[in-house]
Amino acid sequence: MHTFLNPFLLGSVSLALLATLASGQYVGSVGPTTALSAKTTVCNVLDYGGKADNSTDIASAISLAFTSCVKKTAGSRLYVPSGNYLLATTVTLTGGTNWAFQLDGEITASFAGYSAGTLAGNMLVIKNAKDFEMYSSNKKGAFQGHGFIWRGIPNYAGRSSWPRILRFIGCSDFSAHDLLFADGPSFHVVLNSATNAEIYRMTIRAASLGATDGIDVDGTNLHIHDIEVTNRDECISIKSPMSDATIERIRCNQAGGMSIGSLSNDAAIQNILVQDVEAYQCTNMLMMKSYPNGATPGFVKNVAFRNFTGIDNTYTLYLTEYWENSATSSDTSGVQFSNITFEDWRGSVRI
């Protein structure tokens, strides 16, 4: 069934579009299976050529600490001490079981590295890690994207290759927490094919424009909580495929809002609980978006949105199956939305 629900306004009332109760949430355990206290071997990037001078590319030091120390020693920590570091080359850390990445300093993206072609697509990628934890012990671990420099490129040329800050691909039994992200050239945190993950206590500050998503996520059995995002695009965006997840205690400031999508072929999103969300001066509190005419469009089902509070937002809910004005005279199929529930929504909108 093809539907287009125009954005609607919600005052201080409660919204309850309850068909049958959606019960989605994560099941079983999430996060690393080995306690952080047992990861005692320290692999300090300063011992592998790293310098906290904000001018020496730290990429090789991170890579060497990982390959020469972390991967050879179970129960180890890749350690970036306090200080300011420059990253001019994309770093991909693949594999490793029972390890941690302790970021207590600030890593800044190098525009010169981007111009030279060494920093593109992502700043840091963690791939196929298991029983892994990324964190800051001093609450000062941060990534500085200096996105304002990229936005000075005429007509935003090459924007698709502007680096995302932190990306997890195919990781399982892991967590990331107590990290700061500022002014990414593109998205800030991306989780692809994550399993048994916990993401929490993160603060993201981005520019007031599109393509600055806070967290984009797909995977299975996830708990994302206690996140604050300030930007003008998606706060946290649920992508496909995703199942069995709880997203809660989220603060969206002047953002595009929470979202599902955009979706087209083979969408598979189910058993999701999103609750305790506060949206302040957002474009939407929640947006669900998909395209028509998918060959195998897929579904979104058993999703509950509970306890949303809005303060001075433009719209409350935006649901469209014609994202980016994609309606045609020959619509044949669309993503099927079913058992989507809304409960305890309240707040104010701009009139």
Features:
globular; 21 strands; disordered N terminus; 351 residues; mainly beta; 21-stranded mixed sheet; 52% strand
- Which percent range fits the helix content? under 10%
State the major sheet. Answer: 21 strands, mixed
Oligomeric assembly: single chain
Strand/helix succession? EEHEEEEEHEEEHEEEEEEEEEEE
Bulk shape: globular
Termini Cα gap? 32 Å
Unreliable stretches (pLDDT < 50, length at least 5) are 1-22
- How many DSSP-defined strands? 21
Strand % is over 45%
The pLDDT mean sits at: 91
Number of helices: 3
Q: Helix/strand/pairing class, anyone?
A: mainly beta
Radius of gyration: 21 Å
Structure in words:
- The chain is mainly beta and 351 residues long.
- It has helices at residues 59-70, 111-116, 147-150, and strands at 4-8, 41-44, 76-80, 84-87, 91-94, 97-103, 106-109, 122-127, 130-135, 142-144, 164-169, 172-182, 189-205, 215-230, 234-253, 257-263, 267-280, 284-290, 298-313, 315-320, 336-349.
- The longest helix has 12 residues, at 59-70.
